[in-house]
Amino acid sequence: GLISFSDRDSILKGLDEIERRIEAGEFVWRTDREDVHMNIEAALTDLVGEPAKKLHTARSRNDQVLTDFRLWCRDAIDRIISSIRHLQVALVKLALNNEGLIIPGYTHLQRAQPVLLQHLLLAYVEQLDRDAGRLLDCRARLNFCPLGACALAGTGLPIDRFMTSEALGFTAPMRNSIDAVSDRDFVLEFLSANSIIAVHLSRIGEEWVLWASEEFGFITPSDSVSTGSSIMPQKKNPDPMELVRGKSARVIGDLVTLLTLCKGLPLAYNRDLQEDKEPTFDSVKTITGMLEVSAEFAQNITFNDNRIQKALPAGYLDATTLADYLVKKARYF
After folding, report:
1. Which of 22, 30, 142, 146 has a 20 to 30 Å separation from 131 between CA atoms?
2. How confident is the model at residue 330 (pLDDT cuts 50, 70, 90)?
3. How many CA atoms are closer than 13 Å to the CA of 304, on its beta-carbon side?
4. pLDDT at 290 over 70
């Protein structure tokens, strides 16, 4: 092999110590060492000496960064899917707790037909299920290992890309080394999926904000998910869902940032791509928060049956049912 067993053991022992120091907050990051790679390599050299210089064998920062990024995105997708499932459970419980409740259904924000509240809430669940499916599809496509692509043209050293790929839980090594280090389509797909989730959550937020208004009065949020006013003592504002609605713009903006970043880059690696992390991290943090807040809100609202029953007789909600009855009696109109 390229590295002896004794050197391997020294490197692993040194890396374990560096990991311990980082987790304990004891590691000293030096700006004169340019980046995380140089900091780790220099610290490892201080710990184990000459073997540390072999750590970088058959590696470039390009393929290392992309490997780390794919691993991070893979884990982030798993976390977001878990948050989606949590919200779905909250919505299903809300539906079960209001079994049989009929509410006005709307088109164009005009009263249209009576529907079961359960049916409406489960529409959200279906949308979120597709959101999770898109993330799973994205995860499957990003789960390929760039290691061994090096800067762009691979390496002439005898490495086993399949072994490293399998050890890190990837499906297989990436087939083209230039593609491996130059494209960010896996992140674009990830942020696109997040943006669709954000749009769905924004629509839920808009509906619940309307329902909490005095004009509708269909729901009453508990005090734990409401805010008052600094001047108007009667106010009970559904701020969390307003913020969910507002945060959706941020998630969509993160996607547009990355699309704009990538649109003019020739093959292969360009330093512009260093800017891909900030919108990705922000998108994940924001969408996770939106899902958690939406689930918390769903667990802390009460449907006002009296207000809903008063709304049902107005607006001729049974007109379609009457029309269907007339058609069945061959009385066309």
Report:
1. 146
2. confident
3. 18
4. yes
Which residue segments constitute the domains of the chain, with CATH numbers given? 1-57 (1.10.275.10), 58-319 (1.20.200.10)
- Predicted TM-score of the model (pTM): 0.91
- Tokens at 180, concatenated: 């491996």
Task: Tell me whether residue 229 is one of the annotated catalytic residues.
Answer: yes
Contact 114, 312 (CB under 8 A): yes
β-pairing, 144-145 with 102-107?
A: unpaired
Q: Are 278 and 250 in contact (CB under 8 A)?
A: no
How does strand 144-145 pair with strand 172-173? parallel
Which pair of structure tokens corresponds to residue 177? 């080394």
* CA 254 remoteness from chain centre: 12
- 37 tagged catalytic: no
Q: Dihedral angle at the C-alpha atoms of 259, 265, 269, 270, nearest 10 degrees? A: -90
Give me the catalytic one of 82, 83, 108, 165.
108
**Mind listing the pLDDT tens digit for each residue in 167-225?**
999 999 999 999 999 999 999 999 999 999 999 999 999 999 999 999 999 999 999 98
Over the stretch 27-46, which tens digit does the pLDDT of each residue have?
A: 999 999 988 999 999 999 99
Catalytic residue among 82, 213, 222, 229: 229
Q: What is the DSSP string of 157-181?
A: S---HHHHHHHTT-SEE-S-HHHHH
The residues, any chain, with a CB within 8 Å of residue 8's CB and separated by 6 or more, are none
